[in-house]
Amino acid sequence: MSVAESHTCRAPSSSQGRCPCGVPLPEAGIRALTSREHEVFELLGSGLSNQEIAGCLVISGSTVKAHLGRILVKLGVDSRTRAALLAQRLLLQMCPNGQ
After folding, report:
1. Least C-beta-crowded within 10 Å: which of 21, 76, 89, 95?
2. Angle between helices 50-57 and 61-75 (to 10 degrees)
3. Which residues contact 56 (CB under 8 A, 6 or more apart)?
4. How far apart are CA 59 and CA 51, in angstroms?
5. For 85-95, what is the mean pLDDT?
6. Alpha carbon of 67 to those of 20, 24, 34, 84, 89: distances in Å?
7. DSSP letters of 16-60?
8. pTM score, two decimals?
9. pLDDT of residue 14 exceeding 60
10. Cβ(90)–Cβ(60) under 8 Å?
11. What angle separates helix 35-45 from helix 61-75, to the nearest 10 degrees?
């Protein structure tokens, strides 16, 4: 089962809109993601490369890049690395025991 299948992506439940580490979360941007962008975002947070994401979702690498570009804009981050770190924080918040 892929990460995209095993997790339901949802906006963080923090009442103050912050990660446990205190970093503000772009909740509106996360809600604006399409279902496919959510899948790409979750797989990105799992540490997968673009080609690995493409393989998991059975799409091309250029399609992954296009999804990532829209994710960066919607989340207001300036790099794939920042988006991946944000995704990791959200995955940990949703599943603190790593499941």
Report:
1. 21
2. 110
3. 2, 3, 4, 43, 48
4. 9
5. 82
6. 27, 23, 9, 13, 20
7. TSB-TTS-B--HHHHHHS-HHHHHHHHHHHTT--HHHHHHHHT--
8. 0.71
9. no
10. no
11. 90
Domains of the chain: 3-94 (1.10.10.10)
Which tokens belong to 65? 């890049």
- 51, amino acid identity: Q
Residue 90's pLDDT is 84
Place of tokens 């990532």: 68
User: Is the CB of residue 28 less than 8 Å from the CB of residue 8?
Assistant: no
What's the DSSP call for residue 76? T
Helix, strand or coil, per DSSP, at residue 8: coil
Query: Which backbone phi and psi does 67 adopt, to 5 degrees?
Result: -60, -45
Q: How many residues does the chain have?
A: 99
